[in-house]
Write a structure and sequence with these properties.
Layout: E1 4-9, H1 13-23, E2 28-33, H2 36-45, E3 50-54, E4 56-57, E5 60-61, H3 62-71, E6 82-88, H4 94-100, E7 105-109, H5 113-142, E8 155-158, E9 161-164, E10 169-172, E11 175-176, H6 181-192, E12 198-199, H7 200-211, H8 217-231, E13 237-240, E14 244-247
Parallel strand pairs: 1-2, 1-3, 3-6, 6-7
Antiparallel strand pairs: 4-5, 8-9, 9-10, 10-11, 12-14, 13-14
Helix pairs in contact: 6-7, 6-8
Length: 252
Amino acid sequence: MQMDKILIVENDYDLAQKLCGAFIDNETAAVSCGSINAAVALAEDEYFNMVIVDELLPDGNSIDYIKKLKTCNSFNSISKTSVIMIVPDELVDDIETAQENGADDCITKPFSTAALKARVATQLKKHKWMYNFEASKRFDAIGTASIKGIRGEHMVAIDKYMFDFDKMEFRCMGEGVELNGIEEKLLRILIENKGVVLRKEALIERMRSETDMFIDRKILADAITTLRDKLDAAEYIKAIYGIGYMWSTNID
């Protein structure tokens, strides 16, 4: 199961540590920083499902930061990042402005950790619903996704796997796995579309156009079988009878 990653932008160190501790469990991971500049740097290098940002930070306007997040390449994807803004009680009038400029929700300070966790859970559920809805629309339209499905990242970590599509290095449990050109392309397309069933014909057409190789249903089926065996990925690479294939995100 992939964990939801949360970025907490809060210059009150004790509060930031308290919130990080509250969100570290089997389903979420949290990191914190104390300034907009640090938050921008983190967001450029890593994808976060959720950002919790205090309105009052020492180096800039948090509302401007939210607008940047919503237009940043790593956030401007099918799985858009949700933002909750922490607003001091005396600045409650700023909530409307924050929401008009991209905040998905706001919470006034002081607040209980339980109240914030409830709001985060609501936004993450909404986030997943929107992801599935958009993925379904994309699938119905073209049966496969664009390169942006990988959220701008060339290195992908999923459970026991580490895939570096720039260096063409693929690891399972830390051990290197050799893939040929067809298998590498197939893996990338599956990873770009995690959780989405890809129609066989759409998958074949994309692989033909991107490899300049002849690929038919038998070659595709053989490549799926070989890729599944090489990566020990029977739980992940699923054949959906009569439709196609997918990289499953429902792993126990």
